[in-house]
Automatic annotation (TrEMBL):
PANTHER family: PROTEIN O-MANNOSYL-TRANSFERASE TMTC4, PTHR44227. It comes from Smutsornis africanus. TPR repeats lie at residues 499-532, 533-566, 601-634, 703-736. Belongs to the TMTC family. This is dolichyl-phosphate-mannose--protein mannosyltransferase. Its EC number is 2.4.1.109. Its main location: endoplasmic reticulum. The gene is Tmtc4.
Amino acid sequence: QICNQHNAEAPNLEQAFHRMAQTEPNLDHDVSWFLLPSYWAKIVVALISFLCFANSYDGDFVFDDSEAIINNKDLRAETPLGDLWHHDFWGSKLSSNTSHKSYRPLTVLTFRINYLFAGGFYPVGFHVINIILHCTISVLMVDVFSILLGGLQFSNKGRRLNLAPKTSLLAALLFAVHPVHTECVAGIVGRADLLCALFFLLSFLGYCKAFRENKEGHNFSIFWVLVSVILGAVAMLCKEQGITILGLNAVFDALVINKLNVLEIIQKLLHKDKSLENAGLLRKGLLFRITLLMSGGASILYIRWRIMGTGPPAFTEVDNPASFADSLFVRAINYNYYYSLNAWLLLCPWWLCFDWSMGCIPLIKSVSDWRIIALAALWFCLIGLICQALCSEDSHKRRILTLGLGFLIIPFLPASNLFFRVGFVIAERVIYLPSIGYCILFTYGFSLLSKQAKKKKILAVAVLGILLINVMRCALRSSQWRSEEQLFRSALSVCPLNAKVHYNVGKNLADKGNQSAAIRYYREAVRLNPKYVHAMNNLGNILKERNELQEAEELLSLAVQIQPDFAAAWMNLGIVQNSLRRFEEAEQSYWTAIKHRKKYPDCYYNLGRLYADLNRHIDALNAWRNATVLKPEHSLAWNNMIILLDNTGNLAQAEAVGREALGLIPNDHSLMFSLANVLGKSQKYKESEALFLKAIKANPNAASYHGNLAVLYHRWGNLDLAKKHYEVSLKLDPMAPGTKENYNLLRRKLEQLQKKGG
């Protein structure tokens, strides 16, 4: 649909575009840079962006990937697709008090498709999609920067002209190789930012299509304006920042399509100048289009608000310390300091870290803190740029600086803490979109320097050097994101005061079995943050396994004292108290854990073990049954039920439970072994033998499996096979209890049979 906005005073749109091309300075004129045809420019950008991040393709799932992908039930086929629209990014219900309210259903949908096509959690497919997305976005940037730097102009055939081929290529390369983008590309969770950026740019390009020249004169297509709004909504369904494109489209419309002088309009508004009506607000339908953008944005936000609910996300002080400061002055100073650090990461992306919370950036509490200089530098630069953007007599300069600042600041607003508290101090991924503004300002600055410089080639070589350094930095940083060990260790030099960094290094070491080293890092995490309950819990667990029960109890007791609803710490405290034979306290700790986490199968399992130790067999069976109801694949609970029923002579019931368990977990060799023992005692030798052999096939190095099969053959009278499996069992474990005695009995029996036969 075409909306005609005729005005007798307005010149023909084609003539206006032609005049703009003649009168506006061309950024490329004084720039010494590569001039390539559009398709070659896009190929170069795609190849270089691929080169930067290609080595991340075979990386592991790291950091937040575990929660957002591996532990996210929304990725699995059994979860209805409709649930994605009622859950947050991490798979929690949006109505839950613990939800982060990060509503990104389309991103989760792409994860689910990845999972289904790969047939499981294989990270290669996830990484490849991220790399392809970044390459696609970088290619689109060539078109976007050609519009932002060269203006929106069309040929007589309605084809958009690229009036800044050199500077748009430079800006796209700067974007493609910026090291701060590594988290978005190499970290799978960063797909939210990539998808958001993709639809963000498509929305902008769609909005530009609304102004293609036609015979009517000053026309625009309502269809493409509405398409732009829809694409903005899609961007927001990938990540919250996407909605900001509607504001940027309005800014672009005012500055580029209507060529408004913002300062002039402000002055006329202040003086109530009646000539404001002729300032261009109505002449080309600007007011109508802005109304469409605002109405669309308001509708999108309302729908999101209805789905998400009114409750704010729940964050803790360690996530964002400044937002919990009592003093408004302290909050304001620290927020501005965070902004300056984000700006520094764009200017000098050398110190990069996967997490900037937990003491990584200590609060500024006084004006005597030397870091105030960073705030002053930031605002000095911003005010200077804003003054030039508003007051410069050069309309071309005003337009580029305003667009650069707009793309730098507006997409960053949702992460600024101005409208709501966010759950981080600094997050490199949220700078993905604002870096567009940085690339515009950098490229414009380069063009101004080129205009003044006598030796333009030296300046071009310097910029080329920056690009090459960034390519190498991207490759290095991508390799660090390939595994958790490399990622966490890389952060130690950047944020040595960050307790979470030490915690994650310790956790990684503990997972690899290096408990001694893990203890050191956990202790350092607790030293840096004495209220770090998760570090206390993990340290307490390791000490418990090393039988250092006294210190383990102290740490876990402190953890639940600091956070009374910490269910995992209550359960672990119960395990320690059970080991110390303080059974009543252990039982109370287990029930407290269950009180705070109703569906806690592991706690029911440990409670069952406590009851078994106290010979409260019925209570033990009930606890284990609860564990299997909550988690049907809980092998240990099933096994303990079978063994307890077997030991108490309830063979029929043990057999029934064993068959039920194997029906749910058919490939669990430990369940096969337990049920085979029961069947052997019930003289169902053939079925017992089959299960033993199946268990041995799954786990051939288990001495007890061979030993118990030998006992079965011994009872069954199959003495040669019994002898064979006794020998295999003793070879695997010479100290296996009872096996040596049984083997000696068998040998004596065989000797007696030989004597009788002789």
